[in-house]
Amino acid sequence: MVVTTGNCSTAVGCSETFLHKPSLTGSVVLLAIFAILIPIAFALGVRYQASVFATIIITGLALEVLGYIGRLLLAVDDASTKTDFILSLVGTILGPTIIALALFRLLPPIVATYGDGFQAWRPQWHNSVFYAFTAVCVVLQVVGAVMATVPRDANAIHIGIRLLVAGLAIHLSSILLFALLGLRFALAVHQRQDILYANKLTVHNTQRFKTFLIATEGLSLAVLLLTIRAIYRLVPISQGFGSPVARDEVLFLVLDGVMVLLAVIAALASFPGRLLGTTLPSATIQERRFASRPERPYPTAPVQLQPSYAPTYYRQSIKSSKSYSPRHNTSPRKYNSPQQNMVDSEALW
To answer: Which parts of the sequence are annotated with region: Disordered (predicted)?
Structure first.
């Protein structure tokens, strides 16, 4: 169904933008669930003292809520404006981008739990690279969304769509790069299991470490879901808002809304406090880091032996006579107590 408005009927490219009404039921359901997940993420951040991760997740969820508010306005109001469409477009595009950033930050601490021997890259530049990826994506997607809907110039609209496509392509590339780094780390763990067992780390056999592995699989699932969503969103926008794929509401709700929702649920179920805090405390991490070093026996402290006698020596000049010989030492020696069973040194000479 075409959404027609007085403000939009004369705009160039507007008929391509407002070609159908979003699903009212689907928008309400997803809006409610995303809103419910915000206080849950906040509570987990307070509980596990993971404020940065929780803040990023909450920001992504808030953008999703704004996006579905825009879609709800498009669904209930026949006099919808471009502002509603921009709100829905920007919110549903930027939300998963920010949520992916929260997942990107989890890989370095996961690698740190295994030790430096399992690093396939330098984790010092990990966060900086993915922060840069996210910043470029956000700028391109915001500028592209505004240019694709606000101007009345057809050329500006096409430029905006290209910027949107570029932002989504960079976002997809960052997810694939992150997945590649995670795959390399998984292969390193699989190939170097002898190091883990050689260190005799009993923590690998505990229930807490098994929970840690399950949580890591949850993060992998979240990355996979966000990858599917990014691929889907790239196709309809590259084909234009009037393409059949872009007008398929069921396809959007499943491959965009549901994929992002399941990814967030998997991320919250694998919260870093459980994954790196309660599951593996810092003491255990330090134990595992230093366990790879070979143990060296500590040197024993020197024992001071108490002599059975206290010899008394007379001072003698360093410049002794040439006739001096240790066999004929003229310096007298006095003993506090006579020694028995001693070997005669004169007899040995």
So the answer is: 318-349
Say if residues 102 and 174 touch (Cβ distance below 8 Å). Answer: no
Identify the helix (H) or strand (E) that includes residue 47: helix 24-48
What number of CA atoms fall less than 13 Å from residue 337's CA on the CB side? 5
Enter the pTM of the model.
0.72
Q: What is the mean pLDDT of residues 113-128?
A: 73
The angle formed by the CA atoms of residues 243, 245 and 246, to the nearest 5 degrees, is 65
Is the CB of residue 143 less than 8 Å from the CB of residue 94?
A: no
- Amino acid letter, residue 53: F
Amino acid making up residue 155: N
Pick among 1.10.287, 1.10.10, 1.20.1070, 1.20.58: CATH of 14-291: 1.20.1070
* DSSP-assigned letter for residue 300: P
pLDDT at 297 over 60: no
Per the prediction, the chain carries an average pLDDT of: 75
Query: Which of 6, 30, 4, 32 has the alpha carbon at shortest distance from 19?
Result: 4
pLDDT at 339 over 70: no
Task: Indicate the Cα dihedral angle 166, 65, 219, 271, nearest 10°.
Answer: 140
Q: Does 133 have pLDDT greater than 90?
A: yes
The residue count of the chain comes to 349
- What's the longest Cα–Cα distance across the chain? 128
